[in-house]
Write a structure and sequence with these properties.
It is built from 17 helices and seven strands. By secondary structure, the chain is α/β, with parallel strands linked by helices. It has three domains: about 5-130, 3-Layer(aba) Sandwich (Rossmann fold); about 135-205, Helicase, Ruva Protein, domain 3, CATH 1.10.8; about 220-310, Zinc Finger, Delta Prime, domain 3 (Up-down Bundle), CATH 1.20.272. It is flat. The relative contact order is 0.08.
């Protein structure tokens, strides 16, 4: 995103950013990037949380921005976190400021801005997606934070085992903020003990639960995960399908949503190649309603495996779609006499 010659870097270097939307999972550097842009462009940095900000506060920020611009010749960069939480009228509030340069707006959101943010803002903004960090990058970040004596933990005189770094990376799952938090907890705990070495055991004691992951039941992760689940079943990839099923179960996804998608799959993707698939899916839902979690996970797994491994035929799905499209194009046919209902025999 900030590599040499990349558009965002060029805009930062030329100080020509007016509005920027950063979207992506937590802990991927949206706030850090906003602060970096403010520093590089010598702008005054103001941060607000959309969920807790009222119109009166935004008006005050605008007034201050105008005063700083006129008096100190300094621009104001407003970083609005969780921007999607602003209602449409509050989002529209920023449009004049973007156009006349009163504020440089950097909006951050976890969701796809094309759906979560008003079009008037999106059309005036540069969109940049922040992604989860790769394991190698996350490990490098952890080591830098551990060794830095001024801004990190280097002044504590601790040691960090390679296994501890791997454990942190595994549990953070691409989230830089979570990785640094785990590292700090482990360092503070070790600093109070006789042992000065942070090991894998140090990390597992802090967080004994399974690996955490980004998942929002109303956000992109929700739709991306169910998409991966369906496509894995469609490809006959039982291992992949069970992985994505496990992700949804552990994330607390609504099991009825999962069952609905499986029942649809039984008709849409399996169809009459194996009519028993629909019976399996509906019977599985009924069984799940009787037993619930945790045992219900076994029923889910059973039906997923069946849908993965059985033959597929999308004819039912394709034929009804074609019939509907034909109806829209040509209208309904005239019903032939022989197909009409004639309740009175002998009538013409």
């Amino acid at each position: 995103m900030l590599g040499a010659g990349r558009p965002l870097r060029q805009l930062i270097e030329k100080d020509e950013i007016r509005s920027l939307i950063l979207f992506g999972p937590p802990g991927t550097g949206k706030t850090t990037l906003a602060r970096l842009i403010a520093e590089k462009t010598h702008s005054r940095f103001v941060e607000v949380q959309a969920a807790h900000t009222l119109l009166a506060e935004l008006k005050k920020i605008r007034e201050d921005a105008v005063r700083f611009r006129r008096g100190k010749k300094q621009k104001t960069l407003l970083f609005a976190d969780e921007f999607h939480r602003f209602n449409q009228s509050l989002q529209d509030f920023f449009v004049p400021d973007i156009e006349n340069g009163t504020l440089t707006l950097i909006a951050a959101t976890l969701h796809n801005p094309l759906f979560a943010i008003h079009k008037a803002i999106v059309s005036r903004s540069m969109l940049c997606e922040t992604k989860l960090l790769q394991s190698t990058d996350l490990a490098l970040l952890v080591r830098r934070a551990f060794e830095d004596k001024e801004r990190g933990l280097g002044h504590l005189g601790l040691q960090l085992d390679d296994s501890a770094v791997a454990a942190i990376v595994s549990r953070a799952n691409g989230d830089a903020r979570k990785a640094l938090t785990l590292l700090e907890w482990a360092a503070l705990a070790s600093d109070k003990k006789s042992s000065r070495l942070i090991t894998e055991t140090s990390i597992t004691r802090l967080q004994s639960s399974a690996t955490s992951f980004a998942y929002d039941r109303q956000g992109d992760a929700h739709y991306d995960t169910i998409s991966a689940f369906i496509k894995s079943m469609r490809a006959g990839d039982s291992e992949g399908a069970l992985h994505w099923l496990a992700v949804m179960i552990e994330a607390g996804e609504d099991p009825l949503f999962i069952w609905r998608r499986m029942i649809i799959f039984a008709s849409e993707d399996v169809g009459n190649a194996d009519p028993r698939a629909l019976l399996m899916a509906t019977a599985g839902l009924r069984a799940f309603e009787c037993i619930g979690f945790p045992e219900g996970r076994i029923t889910l797994s059973q039906v997923v495996l069946y849908l993965c491994l059985t033959k597929k035929d999308r004819t039912a799905y394709e034929k009804i779609n074609a019939a509907i499209e034909g109806l829209k194009h040509s209208g309904p046919r005239i019903i032939p006499d022989k197909l009409k209902n004639h309740p009175l025999h002998g009538t013409e």
